[in-house]
Model the fold of this input.
Amino acid sequence: MTSDLTFHQLTAARPPIAIDYHPIEGPAQQLLVSGEQLHANACLHCGTDQQQLLTAGHAYTHAGGLAWVVVACAAHLARSQEHSRAGALEQPDAPPPVA
Ligand SMILES: [Zn+2]
Done:
């Protein structure tokens, strides 16, 4: 059993991907992201890849149910964590909840 999806040829030209985003702190959100964002190559919120990107939690795709580590730029990460500081990172490969 592998812990990672076989990489599809996702590019910026592909349509958005619906994910359930689980921040390090706070409730899950449903977002539409690009392949670059899903693969932690761009900020989950603004899509920049020109700034330092920090781990911002993880996401589940609806189709696969696998966890992806996602990142955000410092400004967006600070905003999402302004209420509390994360004491420990969740394991990015934790099994997804099965409904
Ligand atoms: Zn950002």
